[in-house]
Design brief:
39% of the residues lie in helices and 14% in strands. By secondary structure, it is α+β, with helices and mostly antiparallel strands.
């Protein structure tokens, strides 16, 4: 386990008994590289992650999927798959947010998951599958951190622990050209949160005032530009780009 996790107040009988990164490796979740994921806050309109000195970590929502939801089973499956993509994005973001500054923490220092909010795109007033759609996100999260609906659970029980289980809201009725936008809050040891804030601030991507120092400490050349954001290639953004390209082609065809 993480060194901060080992010093936490979690009772021994309730502690996670597996290495989170072993599960990440088994499900082939690519965490990427420092260069591709860690950048400066300069030019960004929102944070991907905010640390509270008490130990709470807030991750911004990410829109995934390419279709609005209804109760058709195939459409629900599309939304669940989109939720898994969002969970992977959050796990990747949290990994780099915890590790990029070299304070000694990583995903093994997540104490437990506090709350997830799944905002589901559906204008169908009869839509009842919001919780089922967001289960795609919750299940993927529990696969990595532990929980009854994760891939490593057997007969509804996860022998490794339940760090990934969270309070949750799954709300339909939102509009947009994607399927759902989940966000999540986790808890880390206050000592780790304070170490991060004292070293590089409360926010991720990294504050511009300290980004160059952090990059140099990792043996990376400082850059004024932003790192490639995983959210820039989400299915929702790809779909919007594709639709714009198709509209352009149709307009060109009519004009010719």
């Amino acid at each position: 386990m993480g060194k901060f996790y080992d010093q936490s107040i979690i009772p021994a009988a309730l502690r996670r008994s597996f290495d989170v990164y072993d599960r990440i490796k088994k499900i082939r979740l690519d965490l990427g590289t420092f260069e591709k994921n860690v950048g400066s806050l300069k030019g960004r309109n929102i944070a991907g992650c905010v640390f509270h000195e008490g130990g709470l970590v807030y991750l911004s929502g990410i829109g995934t999927g390419s279709e609005p939801m209804n109760d058709d089973p195939e459409r629900v499956k599309h939304g669940q798959d989109a939720g898994r993509v969002a969970a992977d994005h959050h796990i990747r973001t949290l990994h780099w947010a915890l590790t990029c500054g070299g304070e000694g923490g990583d995903l093994n220092d997540v104490l437990y998951t506090v709350k997830a909010l799944g905002m589901v795109v559906s204008t169908d007033v009869e839509f009842r599958s919001g919780p089922a759609v967001v289960n795609g996100y919750s299940g993927r999260w529990q696969t990595v951190f532990g929980g009854a609906i994760g891939e490593f659970a057997k007969d509804g029980a996860d022998a490794g622990g339940y760090t990934g289980v969270h309070a949750r809201s799954a709300i339909g009725g939102f509009t947009g050209r994607f399927s759902q936008e989940p966000e999540i809050i986790v808890a880390i040891p206050p000592a780790l949160a304070r170490a991060i804030i004292e070293n590089r601030g409360w926010i991720y991507p990294i504050h511009p005032a300290v980004y160059d120092r952090v990059a140099r400490s990792k043996g990376r050349a400082p850059t004024r530009g932003k790192a490639t954001s995983p959210s820039a290639t989400t299915p929702a953004r790809k779909m919007q780009t594709t639709r714009r390209a198709r509209a352009t082609r149709r307009t060109s065809a009519r004009q010719s």
